[in-house]
Amino acid sequence: ILELMGAKNMPEEKKQELYQKMMETIKSRAMKRVFEAMPEQDLAEWKKVLEIGEQSQIDQFLSARKIDVKKFFLQEAMIYKIEMVDIAKSINK
Length: 93
What we know:
Blueprint: H1 12-37, H2 43-52, H3 55-64, H4 69-91
Helix pairs in contact: 1-4
């Protein structure tokens, strides 16, 4: 993404900072989609599972409801990449 944005020559520290912000945005968007995909009657239980924080329980809970978090992450990463490239193109005109 950084290369497509024309930021490949950015100092390494700035690249890492930007990368962290991008990952936080993608994660936030993907988790929003998880909540949207979650049956309403399961939301309270989902919040409890998240509070416990046990990854195997989280995975099992999502799997039982056929919610594919990896797919959401990939989709959101692609959407974000397109958005960032479009922004960079408009700035570099």
